[in-house]
Amino acid sequence: MSVLEFRDIHRSYGRGEEVLSGVTFSVEPGQVVGLLGKNGAGKTTLIHIAMGMMRAQEGSVRVLGLDPEKDPVAMKSRVGFVSEDQVLPPAMRVKQVIGLHRDLYPTWDAELEARLRERFSFSDRARVKSLSKGEARQVALLCAVAHRPELLILDEPAGGLDPAARREFLETSIDLLSEGGTSILFSSHHMTDVERMADRIVLLHDRSVLIDAALDTLRESYTVAVMPVNAGIDPGAVAASASCLRIRERQGTLRAVFKGDAEEPRALLERELAVRNASVAQVPLEELFVELLGGTS
Ligand code: ATP
What we know:
about 300 residues, alpha/beta, Rossmann fold, 2 domains, 6-stranded mixed β-sheet, 4-stranded antiparallel β-sheet, about 35% helix, elongated
């Protein structure tokens, strides 16, 4: 059974257009899935649907086999959740916040709590409102994981943190999952975070899933061709190729993303389109996503 399953999710706000339109993917036991997409792609909306904080207008979601709307308490007792905009009660002391969570969860692991406290920098006696962003996120992570959830959902968990705090946060999450086999779904804009943590990525674009692939096969699965813009190349002819996902003009060059290794696009460009001065290569993931999702400037 999948740990998390979205099936044909549709969601719009008010009378607006759908922001999610037929989103289907799942997270399998022990997997770490990075949820990617530009600002406004619908990552938070999807995560809120999984957490039962919002309803899909069509489709279904199952979290550990449960319907988050019908069984919110059972579901939340087995899931950990941290989001960028999570608000902890500002006037409470850290000790009280952690105590509340400890009391709430029968599966609370005091030894894990102690280890995290040792690792983290916050003071037990500090009030939440006096914590730095990084410290507040550490408290939230501790509260989300010390009950040893089967699934951890992180919505842009390292957003707003400086590079050192981000690394610390993510490394802690990695340690936790490697020892406990917890499944993780996390959204992020930082490709380096995703590359460090995820087994698989799901990329939301144009209201649905554009890419759902294992990270280690992803780099070999796409190539980018860069061609001079004034060499008589017809972008339409390149785009008509079945393996071409996108072509655009950028910085005085034509750039096309192809599915597959370099062989096919190279042959296609040279033989069928007589384009000889193209460079065709695999590119780092960050660049691949800029090519797939970026604008034309
Ligand atoms: P970001 O990376 O910027 O956090 P996201 O991928 O998480 O973005 P969402 O926050 O899910 O995207 O937003 C998806 C779309 O839905 C956006 O166009 C946003 O403006 C719209 N939206 C989100 N919440 C609401 C709301 N409460 N009312 C109206 N529109 C909303």
